[in-house]
Design goal:
484 residues; alpha+beta; set domain protein methyltransferase, domain 1; set domain protein methyltransferase, domain 2; four-stranded antiparallel sheet; three-stranded antiparallel sheet; 17 helices; globular; SET domain-containing protein; SETD3_SETD6_MTase; SET_dom_sf
Amino acid sequence: MIRRGRADGWLRLPVAALKPWASFNGVKYDGIRVAPLAGYEDRGSTVIAERRLEGGSEGPLMVVPRDLVLSLEFVQSQLKVDKNLREALEALGDFGRTARGAILTFLLHQATIACPEATKSVGVITPFLEYIKFLPDELLPTFWNQNERDLLVGTTLKPAVDAKLSSLNREFENLRAATEHISWCQKNWWNEEEALISFDDWLHVDAMFRSRALDFPGIGDSMVPCIDMANHSSGDATAALYETDGQGNAVLLLRDGKNMDAGHEISITYGDKKGACEMIFSYGFVEDGSSAKELFLELDMPDDDPLSMAKKAISTVAPGVRLYEHQDTIQWDSEYIWLVCVNEEDGLEFQVLQTVDGSRELKAFWKEEELLDVSRMKDLLQSDERWDVFQLRAAAIIQARVESQLTVLYSTDKQDTIKTREDALVREIPYTLATTLRKLETAHLERAYGELEKQKLDLLQSSTVQEYLGLAGANEAGDADDFS
């Protein structure tokens, strides 16, 4: 339905029509406009200064009424007047009560109303029926074809995109199963002969929300018309910030001390700490001069660990390690690694106990004390006399994981996976983003490998480690590699 509408042209409105729409719906501009930036028309529309703006002395550059902020609160208010939307969301159960589930279903519902081929009385028209016609196509990785996604092999974005596509497919199938018995949904969404929607439409409403959602104070994850037209800049380049005022309206404010001449872009930040992988995943671009910043590598239990199944069963933390920039180094953080690197001889024990209702439950113990929270494992190990030994094991395991990731990146760089632009099946934007990400993540991982090597060498100087190695019969420093 959405794709068919785009082909017919009904789902496109020129950005010149945005200001009349905004004015009609109570949005106020002061000293700014929304338009393409001269010389950067390929980036789409953005917020531009119409006059000289003085940071610290300006009032709100834009005010968006609270009842025009697309949030869970807004969708729930619509249920009072739109019985069709209410039917669909109630059928979706818990998913329909989340911000994501409610907003995506609402967007799909509004797009259905806008479709000329939809039956009459599909639902209640809202201002968002017109607003989604101003939104550009976002070429997020979920829209990349298979050849383009193959360019991501070896990067942390590849498993993220694969998992997201699987999740989106489950959501779409759950939507079908939950709503196909509802009369208006059956006629418009699931009619076997002339169904108006497909999985591609669910991809589009996901992209609308994922690329434009902002976390507003007091409102939560929301789409805020007009403010969400602002582009991203990080650090000192960020010109404005978004807040809510005393009435709960969304406002765009120029940062104190930030002066902008007429014609300059008014940017906001989508998150200064977000790495290149997350920026491509959610927004479809990488900021110029950016770095990987951080990445997440999955960790698994060693195949020869006899407690691996039990460890996985009791774990409640993310099974991986975060590698992030800190000043001039790459640091790591993981709650899971401390469960990976200890075993029965260290003091970890599992017991299957019978509960009062007769069922059986797996319990973990550290030196005979019940381990109620896996995230406390590091605290327990820090107080252990062999803490340096555990740190060395952790560093060795993580370094081996970093090495395996680099091996995949190196090997796929040398194969035909990295296609040239002459391949008509690989578009320019995915090619550029994928090759940029590969370079950034390779550099990040190489730095991480070096830092982990330094950590290992430092820990090998510990008397605790040297004593342990001696007891284990490993007197040479090189034997520390066996700790993984």
